[in-house]
Structure formats: structure tokens, C-alpha cells
Design brief:
alpha/beta; Rossmann fold; four-stranded antiparallel sheet; about 40% helix; globular; ATP hydrolysis activity; nucleotide-binding
Length: about 250
């Protein structure tokens, strides 16, 4: 079943075209890795899917869970089950992590026609997830990402994902800035989200994340287009040979 279907997607920012004809289908249960040189449009694709302001789709269609994604506001995409994990998670001083998590979860529950979660159940659930991410409970009572290290911010993103259980997780360079221990913890969190009912898109530069989170498909994005797709062995080839040979083949 196609959870996400992108056809001939073109998008620009400030009048500059970045995406130049993306075609991609993600079925429920699949993990797709998107790789490519800097400036290829990987983060732009995530931002367009997430509904970030400033990005204009000029051509093409995006269908998410049988809905026209381009007709949905950013918050509608979120409550419908899409989560975007940022390459550089923003800090929100003054807003405690625990309040953000509870409000986000209740917004999702409201969209599903469910009652708000009671405090006891919420605290039990979130503390179990915090422990699984090798984080201290004290993080719950700090400002969102405020003063967090790079690794702590990425763990916090995966904590949000585990709590909200999105249908589609878009993880933009979640592995950047992580030491080996943090990479293992984050990867374990991503693997816990794998299931027949959801899809995951991983944007990464490096094979090392894919050693822990094995993708079903790997795509090479270059100059706004997917120029090659394959299975996990494509990522191994990129790690060993770099991009040049594949870019030359595509040209």
C-alpha cells in the first residue's frame, strides 16, 4: 500500500528551483534512505513534505495516506501522522519539554477522536521512553532543546517520534553530530518504530547509520532529481567509491 507517492515534484525557494522532478513511492512498512552530495535537495525535499514556509511547489503531486498533501497545512500534516526530524533541531527556551510532548500527543489524539491522555498514563509512558533513549528525567523539565548538546537534541527528536508514533517519519540527517554511543541509541529508537503500518525516510550522508538501520531502498539524489535507486548494497558502493562514478553514469 502506497503511504507516500510523489510524482514529478518541482519546488523552489526564493525563485531558485531546487527540486526538478522527484518521483518516489514509499509503501507502509518500508525504510527508504536518501543520499547524495551537499546541495542536492535532500533537506529541501523534507521541508517541502513537512510544509515549511518559503518553499513553493511549482509542479507535481504528493499523496500522503490517500490525501492531497499539498492541500494540507503544516499542522494538518502533523496530526495526520507525518513527523519531520530536523537536521538542526530548534531550541525553544521557556517551553518545557514535557509540556510540548503532552500537547503534541493530545493534539494527535484529538484528531483521532480520542480523549486527552490522563497525566498518570502519560508520565508512565514518557518516562519509559526517556529511559529507553538513555536520557535523564531532568530533560523533561528543561526548555525544548535549550542547552542540549547535538546528541541530546537528536535523542529528543527520536523521543518525540516514539511517543507520537507517526505513520511517516522524515529524519533529516539524524546521525549528524552523533558519537558512536549516541548513534547506537538513536538507531535503536528508529528500529523500534519499524512496522507494517508506517514508513520511514532517512536522509543521510554516511553508511554508518545504515549499518544499524538497514534500509529497504537507497536513492541517490543529485541536482534535484533521483538519479539512481537500489537496495542496501548501493549505500555500500557509495561508501567505498564515493559519488563520482554514479554521477558520471547518470550523465
Amino acid at each position: 500500500m502506497a503511504l507516500l507517492e510523489i510524482k514529478n515534484l518541482h519546488a523552489e525557494i526564493d525563485g531558485k528551483e531546487i527540486l526538478k522532478g522527484i518521483d518516489l513511492t514509499v509503501n507502509a512498512g518500508e525504510v527508504h534512505a536518501i543520499m547524495g552530495p551537499n546541495g542536492s535537495g535532500k533537506s529541501t525535499l523534507c521541508h517541502v513534505l513537512g510544509g515549511r514556509d518559503g518553499y513553493e511547489v511549482t509542479q507535481g503531486t504528493i499523496t500522503f495516506d490517500d490525501h492531497d498533501l499539498l492541500e494540507m497545512e503544516t499542522e494538518e500534516r502533523a496530526v495526520a501522522g507525518m513527523l519531520l526530524g530536523f537536521q538542526h533541531p530548534v531550541e525553544i527556551p521557556g517551553v518545557k519539554n514535557i509540556y510540548l510532548l503532552k500537547e503534541a500527543l493530545n493534539a494527535k489524539r484529538e484528531a483521532q477522536g480520542l480523549d486527552e491522555i490522563d497525566t498518570f498514563t502519560f508520565m508512565k509512558q514518557v518516562r519509559e521512553l526517556v529511559a529507553s533513549m538513555d536520557m535523564d528525567d531532568a530533560f523533561l523539565h528543561r526548555g525544548v532543546n535549550a542547552g542540549f548538546s547535538g546528541g541530546e537534541k537528536k535523542r529528543n527528536e527520536i523521543l518525540q517520534m516514539l511517543l507520537l508514533e507517526p505513520k511517516l517519519a522524515l529524519l533529516d540527517e539524524t546521525d549528524s553530530g552523533l558519537d558512536i554511543d549516541a548513534l547506537k541509541v538513536v538507531s535503536e529508537g528508529i528500529n523500534r518504530m519499524r512496522g507494517e503500518e508506517r514508513g520511514i525516510i532517512l536522509v543521510t550522508h554516511y553508511q554508518r547509520l545504515l549499518n544499524y538501520v538497514e534500509p529497504d531502498f537507497v536513492h541517490v539524489l543529485y541536482k534535484g532529481k533521483i538519479i539512481k535507486s537500489g537496495d542496501k548494497t548501493l549505500a555500500h558502493r557509495l561508501e567505498a567509491e564515493g559519488y563520482q562514478e554514479i554521477l558520471e553514469e547518470a550523465s
